[in-house]
């Protein structure tokens, strides 16, 4: 369970804050769509803080099952007891449950949350034979990256249509530079150069990168520079190396970045 930290910086790029506030009032399920590192998780953390709710985050992967979310029986001493999972805890207590990269989870996870995404707002716990009505304040938020391994990790239309959806993308250069400055205290001119590098690499579609430069990677580079690491070396290890293992591509990107900072 993660309690949202205080004083989280988030720079709105559209009407997402107003939309979230409306969704929170109406208790509608929310789906955040967008590439890795585009601010989806930071937005949820920020809004949980703004509406003063406990945030329960589950980072989904290919082994995440409904049992992991709902709960399981465990043996304690001479008895068998039931332990609630993060989904059950959030449903009972009226927390925000955030399923990060929900498309990565096993299909039974999607089945388990279906009844929480419509008028029923209830969770069936098969192993207990119980149905739990969601707390009035419970809110379900999920995210996924539509472009990642396209065709393999997509959400079915029948699932997506159960959510109100918000699309996220990398912010425009001015806002992205402001994010770097506020997150790290980096000088404005260096922040602008880092953003220019990110923008340039994002437009190099001919390199065939699986993922491109996220705002998160630029923040990491800015932190390293602000901590004393040479600028070019910081960009090499925080931006270029995480993108690819192909040595020719790494060298090409390093040469490009060296010219820009």
From TrEMBL:
Signal peptide: none annotated. GO terms for molecular function: ATP binding; ATP hydrolysis activity. Belongs to the CbbQ/NirQ/NorQ/GpvN family. Coiled coil: none annotated. Residues 176-259 form the CbbQ/NirQ/NorQ C-terminal domain. Keywords: ATP-binding, Nucleotide-binding. Transmembrane segments: none annotated. This is Nitric oxide reductase NorQ protein. The keyword Endoplasmic reticulum does not apply. Pfam families: AAA_5 (PF07728), CbbQ_C (PF08406). The keyword NADP does not apply. It comes from the Bacteria. Residues 29-163 form the ATPase dynein-related AAA domain.
């Amino acid at each position: 369970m993660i309690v949202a930290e205080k004083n989280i910086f988030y720079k709105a790029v559209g009407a997402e804050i107003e939309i979230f506030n409306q969704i929170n009032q109406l208790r509608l399920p929310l789906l955040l769509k967008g590439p890795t590192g585009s601010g989806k998780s930071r937005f949820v953390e920020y809004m949980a803080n703004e509406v003063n709710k406990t945030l329960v985050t589950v980072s989904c992967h290919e082994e995440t099952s409904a049992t992991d979310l709902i709960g399981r029986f465990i043996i304690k001493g001479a008895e068998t007891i039931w332990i609630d999972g993060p989904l059950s805890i959030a449903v009972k207590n009226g927390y925000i449950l955030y399923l990060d990269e929900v498309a990565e989870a096993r299909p039974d996870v999607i089945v388990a949350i279906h009844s929480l995404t419509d008028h029923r707002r209830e969770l069936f716990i098969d192993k207990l034979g119980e149905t739990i009505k969601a707390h009035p304040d419970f809110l379900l938020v999920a995210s996924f990256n539509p472009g990642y391994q396209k065709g393999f990790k997509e959400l079915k239309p029948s699932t997506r249509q159960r959510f109100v959806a918000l699309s996220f993308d990398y912010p425009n250069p001015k806002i992205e530079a402001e994010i770097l400055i506020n997150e790290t205290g980096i000088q404005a001119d260096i922040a602008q150069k880092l953003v220019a590098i990110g923008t340039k690499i994002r437009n190099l579609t001919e390199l065939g990168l699986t993922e491109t430069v996220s705002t998160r990677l630029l923040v990491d580079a800015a932190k390293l520079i602000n901590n004393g690491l040479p600028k070019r070396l910081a960009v090499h290890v925080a931006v270029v190396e995480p993108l690819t293992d192909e040595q020719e591509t790494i060298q090409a990107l390093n040469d490009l970045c060296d010219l820009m900072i």
